Amino acid sequence: MEEPTKQCLKDLIVFQNLESEELEMICQKSYAKHYQKGEVIFFENDSVKKLYLLINGKVKLSMLSAEGKEKVLTILQEGDIFGELSLFDEDPHPLTAEVIQEARLLIIPWKDMEQIIMKRPSMAIKIIEALSKKTRLLTSQVRELVFQDAAGRLASLLSRLAEDFGREIGEGTVIDLVLTHQEIANLIGSSRVTVTKLINRFIDDGMITIKKRKIIIKDFESLGEKLQTIF
């Protein structure tokens, strides 16, 4: 593993507490790979067992219904671990991982990761943390689908995206991520038409604005009031 990759690992939050020896073990057993926007890392129902660490770029995790409708679970960013959902049983991947912004990944075959965990059990904590994060996310999405209308789900999504990808500018908090209305609809379990209407309503109400295809949140307080909208 080249030295720049090793240094990059040290800079990532997920590996900041590891000792040099532990980082070296990961470097020896892993390999880096670049992906272009639109490339699929693995498909739903693939059976390849590998652990993936996103060094930079953005990746979306999604699933398809029997009718071919996409539901996006989440968008991953630098430092996120994925692929762990299929590591502990014989089932294939339940999700598809697709690159939405040019990405560099560190990939560790599961057999090699098992050897690392046997020597350094503390490494398993990182995988457990990744599993817990997705469990909390799934729980949150189920709660939103059950208790919130489309406006509430959109407000919740924008709040999460602002937390994960937000950057402060003079006009408010810009979500440093370009998403189409269809992609937003896939994230909140709604239709593109509904999302377009809601975004226009949020703009008219002064909660958000859009510049260079990026959403800027201007009024978090009013956005938060939408989260209280329930059936």
From TrEMBL:
SMART domains: cNMP, HTH_CRP. Residues 148-221 form the HTH crp-type domain. Gene3D superfamilies: Jelly Rolls, Winged helix-like DNA-binding domain superfamily/Winged helix DNA-binding domain. GO terms for cellular component: cytosol. Keywords: DNA-binding, Transcription, Transcription regulation. Coiled coil: none annotated. InterPro entries: cNMP-bd_dom, cNMP-bd_dom_sf, Env_Response_Regulators, HTH_CRP, RmlC-like_jellyroll, WH-like_DNA-bd_sf, WH_DNA-bd_sf. GO terms for molecular function: DNA binding; DNA-binding transcription factor activity. The keyword Transcription applies. Residues 14-134 form the Cyclic nucleotide-binding domain. This is Transcriptional regulator, Crp/Fnr family.
